[in-house]
# Entry
Amino acid sequence: MATPQPPKRSFLIGRSSECDIIVNHPEVSGRHAILAILPDGTVEIRDMGSKNGTFINGKKVLVAVLRPGDKLSLGTHTIDWEEILRNPPPPVGGSGSPTRLTRVPLGTRNVAITIGWVILAIAIVGAILWFFVRPWVFQGTFQAK
# Structure
């Protein structure tokens, strides 16, 4: 079984200013879908958990291959996906890689919470060792003869 190859180019479509293709329509989610050109040249659309759905020729899809002439809709808003491929937006920082959506930012709040949980876990393990294991291990070691 062959491992899937990453797309040559992918476009994040949505209302967010972080998207490659910005669509200012109330039924389009902030990060609605990814339009990807696969290494074999096929074009794939992948819904990113949007509220109003992604449709090809009126049929709701999560992941599907687009063929010339297919009508792509985000919610009720129709997108000319073939025009996007004819005139793609300029790459934003290493465009051959996956879109920003697939990269998880490491915020300082997440780091602080993680450090807090680690300190709490160490304290709990220390307390268990001190109150339960220590008396059992050193039982009778320090008694006078």
Remarks:
- Residues 93-104 have pLDDT under 50 and may be disordered.
- Strands lie at 9-14, 21-22, 33-37, 43-47, 54-56, 59-61, 63-66, 72-74, 77-79.
- Residues 60 and 86 are 25 Å apart (CA to CA).
- DSSP finds two helices and nine strands in the chain.
